[in-house]
């Protein structure tokens, strides 16, 4: 080795020296990476075993606590915390296990599981996670708060409604939907930038499937400052069939924003509101491509073949996608149709 | 100007090129790592799939060109019909097959011809007929029969006559994961800006166990050639495209599996039928189109393995494929040469295109020049074997390092190859690849360049075994 | 003592069921996936089977079909989430006794188990 070292560093030609040093560095890095690969594989196996052992321990303890009514657990809880919940790894698994119990059980058993969370002073851990600089830790903590219905930390979670990180924002939205049963969407007032399609799907899903309260009237959100919230309100009015809100949707078909016009028409289609037919036919010629497409859809669902004939003269000026849509829905024969003999 | 002087300058140039390429690779490794780490951390706390099923996801039209696929088309189509996605349809474009591809489709899926609209947006070779199914079970299937025009031409015909807002272009013999569409559509849902395309990682299906059109067991390919391509794909996807996606400079979404916004594709002009690299050329053109229209947009990339394809396991066929890829790269770079170093195109013009030009395209040429230079030195008896030895060692160790890092990324992210013996086999392949595989690829690339200059420009016949034969 | 077999891949759910039913005085055995469940059914007889509808390797419905073929008299209670209405319906068509949706109340489960066992004897 010393000879090799001498050989390299006494080389006069610096290019050669540089290349030799690089070779050695690369070789060391290769060995390091190979070790990393093997270690990664082995580490995964060891980690999995360790986690499984720990989960078993916790499952046993929590299960016993929930289902054993006679014993006095206070001392045992404290001793468990001091012995087994010292580090981050252990605390994270404990939270995960309690979450699992809380998500799958209901009634008294669930309450007991959550009480264990407080007894083990895991709230402090959550608080620390919410203040962490790492987005994935924040997101996970918010999710836990939501599942365990920990509302006392909502002041810490509220700023995340406008987080630039998708995952964090998503969890914050979810949290606030569950936070107020009477008004699940009141967090929308605190949103400062547009909600994405994914977030809309997400919120809609929660309202349809996991939300247990009464479905509120969504029309107030049609007056929101953000267009995406207005669009979302329209979608959700359609989804929940709040046809009494049709009069509130109608004005949007003449809004200056193209997206609002488009979604308003889609909403009216879902609500089966034919009142806009005349106006839409009248506006067809001057409309943008996307809105024209939606108008054709409107006529095919709520109009008649006469209505299709009324706009036929404008179709040749439309783009291909709209011409194709028109033909498919109206089935009106034009010279452009190619059929089999 | 004597030999020594020339040798000196040449050395400096090669050294500079080598340094830049090394720094380039290390940078992409760094960004790829961040991207993979972030992707792993997306916990998906809620089970997302019921969520995605029950909602108003964008509708997708799958476009699958077929040429002489009578053996496979029915089976492949059956697996496409069982994908997990709320609303989608499938358009098979029979590109003037000489065998009975169309007949097989008509018989098996109860097809009948329908009338259709002429004068479509994108010009294609003549469409002879469009077929729908009489059977309600296949109501989301459409077959377009047209005169042969090539893959790009077929895809354009598919774009013309499909109904949905997103198009998914696939190779009909690729195997998709059941949830592939759900995962690949995700970038379109995070629409802070308009998303024009989304691509994923392509995996090597050779030797894998396939049942009912799905991969049931992942195995490392038996042949060295296919294994070398596994390593190559790791480098390309896990270290290349991930980094580019993070920098928003992705130039290529694989033609094997990608989703595009239909309207933008039509407005940008559809696929270019005059190039063999139509997948890369389309994305570059779409990006350029959006940039020129000054519309904010983004391109998504999903690192999950979603699509499996059979790679060539014969040298001759591999040569044809790489030859074609080189010609495609050159054609795309030439068509869009205006973008090179042009700040108007931001990352695309200042980083991505130059990278493709100097590294993806030029690297084999520089290597060839290096070999010629070496021969030149031998002729003039000017070879310093010590220098040569050290140079070869440094190049070899760097190549191994890069590949081994790609293996580590695979281990860190998806570990598709679970058996421990696979890792050892892969490491062995990594050690042999620069010696046995790389020179061949380099030669195929050079030949591609020669063919472009001499004017040869076809796809060439690609024969495929058919994946259904890979069952134990 | 009545013997109950639980086929469920979520260890927490298994633990909860085990705790509750053992306290109620039953002998409880568990399997973590469909394949293991089938094996255990081949080896021994049980007075009641509680199975999840979403299991790895074999679907809950396939498992129920198998049980009904081989141990037609054994009552079955299925565990599912409330989103799986069509699968629950299919399970009922195959002859299961009862179903419990998650999240579940252990007390309610106890009652249903008791009822199912009584309905058979």
TrEMBL record, chain A:
InterPro entries on file: ARM-like (IPR011989), ARM-type_fold (IPR016024)
Alphabetical UniProt keywords: Membrane, Transmembrane, Transmembrane helix
Keyword Transmembrane helix: yes
Transmembrane regions listed in the UniProt entry: 14-38
Tagged with keyword Membrane: yes
SUPFAM superfamilies: ARM repeat
Name recorded for this polypeptide: HEAT repeat domain-containing protein
Source organism of this protein record: Christiangramia antarctica
TrEMBL record, chain B:
Signal peptide coordinates: none
EC code: 2.4.-.-
TM segment ranges: 12-34, 347-380, 386-410, 422-446
One GO molecular-function entry: glycosyltransferase activity
Domain Glycosyltransferase 2-like, first and last residues per copy: 61-197
Keyword list, A-Z: Glycosyltransferase, Membrane, Transferase, Transmembrane, Transmembrane helix
Similarity comment: family membership: Belongs to the glycosyltransferase 2 family.
Name this polypeptide is given: Glycosyltransferase
UniProtKB/TrEMBL annotation, chain C:
Keywords: Phosphoprotein
InterPro entries documented for this protein: Bact_response_regulator (IPR050595), CheY-like_superfamily (IPR011006), Sig_transdc_resp-reg_receiver (IPR001789)
Keyword Phosphoprotein belongs to the record: yes
Pfam families: Response_reg
Gene3D superfamilies named in the record: 3.40.50.2300
Boundaries of every Response regulatory domain copy: 3-117
In-chain residues carrying the UniProt-annotated modification 4-aspartylphosphate: 52
PANTHER family to which the protein is assigned, alphabetical: RESPONSE REGULATORY DOMAIN-CONTAINING PROTEIN, STRESS RESPONSE REGULATOR PROTEIN 1
Name of the protein in its database record: Response regulator transcription factor
Organism: Christiangramia antarctica
Upper taxonomic lineage: Bacteria, Pseudomonadati, Bacteroidota, Flavobacteriia, Flavobacteriales
């Amino acid at each position: 080795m010393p000879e090799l070292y001498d050989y390299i560093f006494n080389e006069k030609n610096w290019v050669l020296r540089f290349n030799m040093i690089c070779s050695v560095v690369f070789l060391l890095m290769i060995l390091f990476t190979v070790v990393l690969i093997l270690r990664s594989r082995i580490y995964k196996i060891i980690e999995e075993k360790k986690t499984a052992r720990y989960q078993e321990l916790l499952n046993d303890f929590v299960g016993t606590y929930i289902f054993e009514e006679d014993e006095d657990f206070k001392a045992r809880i404290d001793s468990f915390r001091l012995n087994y919940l010292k580090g981050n790894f252990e605390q994270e698994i404990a939270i995960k296990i309690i979450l699992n119990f809380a998500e799958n059980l209901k009634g008294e058993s669930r309450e007991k599981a959550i009480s264990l969370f407080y007894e083990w002073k895991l709230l402090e851990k959550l608080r620390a996670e919410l203040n962490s600089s790492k987005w994935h830790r924040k997101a996970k903590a918010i999710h836990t708060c939501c599942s365990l219905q920990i509302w006392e930390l909502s002041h810490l979670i509220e700023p995340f409604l406008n987080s630039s990180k998708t995952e964090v924002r998503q969890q914050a939205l979810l949290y606030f939907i569950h936070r107020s049963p009477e008004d699940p969407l009141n967090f929308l007032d605190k949103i400062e930038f547009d909600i994405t399609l994914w977030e809309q799907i997400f919120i809609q899903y929660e309202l349809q499937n996991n939300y247990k309260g009464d479905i509120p009237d969504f029309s107030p959100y049609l007056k929101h400052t953000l267009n995406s919230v207005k669009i979302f309100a329209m979608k959700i009015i359609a989804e929940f069939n709040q046809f009494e809100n049709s009069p509130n949707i109608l004005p949007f078909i003449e809004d200056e924003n193209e997206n609002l016009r488009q979604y308003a028409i889609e909403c009216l289609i879902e609500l089966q509101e034919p009142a806009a037919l005349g106006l839409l036919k009248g506006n067809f010629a001057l409309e943008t491509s996307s809105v024209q497409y939606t108008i054709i859809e409107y006529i095919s669902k709520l109009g008649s073949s006469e209505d299709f004939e009324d706009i036929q003269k404008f179709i040749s000026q439309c783009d291909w996608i709209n011409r194709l849509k028109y033909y498919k829905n109206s089935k009106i024969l034009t010279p452009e149709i190619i059929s089999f003999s | 100007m004597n030999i020594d002087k020339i040798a000196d300058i040449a050395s400096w140039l090669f050294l500079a090129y080598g340094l830049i390429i090394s720094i380039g690779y290390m940078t992409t490794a760094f960004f790829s790592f961040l991207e993979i780490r972030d992707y792993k951390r997306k916990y998906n706390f809620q089970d997302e799939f019921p969520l995605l099923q029950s909602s108003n996801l964008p509708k997708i039209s799958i476009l699958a060109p077929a040429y002489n696929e009578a053996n496979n088309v029915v089976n492949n189509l059956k697996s496409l019909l069982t994908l997990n996605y709320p609303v989608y349809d499938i358009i098979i474009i029979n590109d003037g097959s000489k065998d009975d591809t169309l007949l097989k489709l008509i018989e098996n899926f109860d097809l009948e011809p329908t009338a259709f609209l002429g004068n479509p947006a994108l010009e294609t070779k003549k469409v002879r007929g469009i077929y729908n199914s009489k059977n309600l079970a296949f109501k989301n299937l459409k077959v377009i029969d047209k005169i042969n025009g090539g893959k790009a031409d077929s895809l354009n015909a598919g774009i013309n006559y499909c109904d949905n807002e997103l198009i998914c272009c696939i190779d009909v013999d690729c195997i998709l994961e059941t949830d592939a569409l759900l995962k690949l559509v995700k970038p379109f849902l995070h629409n802070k800006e308009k998303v024009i395309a989304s691509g994923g990682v392509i995996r090597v299906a050779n030797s894998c166990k396939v049942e009912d059109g799905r991969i049931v067991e992942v195995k490392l390919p038996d042949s060295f050639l296919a294994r070398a391509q596994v390593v190559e794909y790791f480098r390309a996807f896990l270290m290349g495209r991930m980094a580019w996606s993070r920098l928003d400079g992705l130039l290529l979404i694989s033609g094997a599996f990608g989703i595009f916004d239909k309207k933008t594709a039509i407005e940008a002009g559809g696929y270019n039928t005059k190039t063999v690299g139509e997948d890369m050329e389309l994305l570059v053109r779409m990006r350029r189109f959006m940039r020129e229209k000054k519309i904010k947009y983004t391109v998504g990339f999903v690192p999950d393995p979603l699509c499996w394809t059979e790679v060539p396991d014969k040298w001759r066929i591999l040569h044809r494929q790489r030859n074609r890829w080189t010609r495609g790269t050159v054609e795309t770079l030439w068509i869009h040469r205006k973008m090179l170093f042009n700040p108007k195109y931001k990352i695309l013009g200042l980083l991505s295109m130059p990278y493709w030009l100097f590294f993806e395209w030029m690297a084999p040429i520089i290597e060839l020049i290096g070999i010629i230079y070496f021969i030149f030195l031998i002729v003039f008896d000017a070879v310093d074997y010590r220098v040569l030895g050290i140079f070869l060692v440094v190049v070899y160790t760097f190549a191994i390092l890069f590949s081994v890092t790609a293996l580590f990324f695979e281990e860190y992210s998806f570990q598709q190859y679970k058996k421990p013996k696979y890792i050892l086999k892969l490491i062995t392949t990594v050690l042999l690849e620069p010696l046995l595989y790389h020179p061949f690829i380099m030669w195929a690339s050079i030949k591609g360049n020669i063919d472009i200059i001499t004017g040869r420009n076809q796809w060439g016949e690609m024969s495929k075994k058919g994946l259904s034969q890979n069952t134990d | 003592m009545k013997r109950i077999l639980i086929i469920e891949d979520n260890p927490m759910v298994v633990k909860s069921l085990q705790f509750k039913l053992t306290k109620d005085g039953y002998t409880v055995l568990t399997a973590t996936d469909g394949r293991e469940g089938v094996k255990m059914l081949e080896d021994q007889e049980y007075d009641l089977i509680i199975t999840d509808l979403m299991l790895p390797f074999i679907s809950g419905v396939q498992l129920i079909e198998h049980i009904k073929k081989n141990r037609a008299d054994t009552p079955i209670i299925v565990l599912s989430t409330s989103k799986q209405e069509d699968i629950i319906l299919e399970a009922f068509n195959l002859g299961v006794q009862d179903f419990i949706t998650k999240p579940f109340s252990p007390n309610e489960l106890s009652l249903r188990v008791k009822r199912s066992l009584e309905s058979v004897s």
